[in-house]
Amino acid sequence: MTNADFLAEPEQMAAEPASLGEVRPVPRVSIQAFCESSELVEVVEAAAADRRMSRAHVKVHTGGIDAATEFYREAATPNLIVVESRLPKDSLGPELDRLAEVCDPGTRVVVIGTINDVALYRNLIGRGVSEYMVAPVDVPGLIRMVSGLFADTESAPLGRSIAFVGAKGGVGASMVAHNVAWSIARNFENEVVVVDLDLPFGTAGLDYNQDPPQGVAEAVNSPDRLDDNFFDRLLAHCSDNLSLLAAPATLDRAYDFSEFSFEPVLDVAQAAVPIVVIDVPHMWTSWIRKTVLAADEVVLVVEPDLANLRNAKNLLDLLRQERPNDAPPRVVLNKVGMTKRPEISPADLVDALNVEPVAQIGFDSQLFGTAANNGQMISEVDPKHAAAATFDSIAATVTGRSEIRPAKRGLLSPLLQQFRGKKKSA
């Protein structure tokens, strides 16, 4: 919104012709609106039904800033919050400060008010508000505003990429990735795309009970066709907010790629959805190395044996060296406590790797075997099992919301704290 638009009278603003011909479609973001008037409810619902908003997940609530503040004390915030307020100028800023205290990092806030004042606009922008709109707001104006926030081609990619890597083949990195992606989609209502990069042997289609005819192979082999629409057609929809870019899992051809082959695919994915979970196969090629180093977050899945310890240490050393300005990789200990198998103790792994694991997952052949054979997630087979809570905990950690879930769900405390607690009790 320009200063000229802002200072225009509401009647003039509403009367202006509104063409949406050049407005880009809104990507897969979660939007929640808190409306004080029935008029704005109708506008938001009409905007949500427009084809440009078809990928966005929109929810409408009644109430203004105070209702939003109370709601998000117990819930994760979406990508965008739209709040309507009829408060006077002196009260609006402090109320928004209260809302900011319960917002997750990265959440954007748009305020719709009745005061047409450029000083107020500047004050709100200075407080971190993404946009201030003067009522009455029409459908084209609302769509244009949301598109401008998220569909700017010159802005950084919207999505956050999370690469799951196994320290050794067969450690269950894919299983962890798929369950964590499912937890993110369910718990936070963010759109998530799982990209299965194990083209010859990928299991994501099996785990989600999907058999799509197309997927990541078509995307990587058709870079000239790769855009939002083509990408969307390749996705298999697994559940609410969760989609899959599946691997073909066939051996009719060799899957040899250059270092940069998957870069366009992941760029399109990150521009389209808030969370991209990358299921990385256990091999080491130039394109896998580049994919792992370029991810926003890396989760390393490790079993408690010597080969895993060696490989995990090598990977951690490489990632720390090549990504000095990034957060250290997250480590998940999997298949802990397998009957009759000699293991390196988790405490010794912690000391050797010099990293605090975010979770450990006990070995339960019955549970995990049933889930794999049925094409289900662990929470679908047994939602009360400790492993289900662990996947929720990992999901909260990798999305930056670890402070929300533990108090609400009683999730597992970090592994290192468990060991310290045992030592103290001993």
Describe this structure in words.
- By secondary structure, the chain is an alpha/beta fold.
- It folds into two domains: 126 residues, Rossmann fold (3-Layer(aba) Sandwich); 266 residues, Rossmann fold.
- Helix content is 43%, strand content 16%.
- The strands form two sheets. Strands 8-9-7-10-6-11-12-13 form an eight-stranded mixed sheet, sandwiched between helices. It has a five-stranded parallel sheet with strand order 2-1-3-4-5, with helices on both faces.
- It is globular, with a radius of gyration of 24 Å.
- The N terminus and C terminus are likely disordered.
Features of the shown structure:
426 residues; alpha/beta; 43% helix; single chain; globular; Rossmann fold; 20 helices; eight-stranded mixed β-sheet
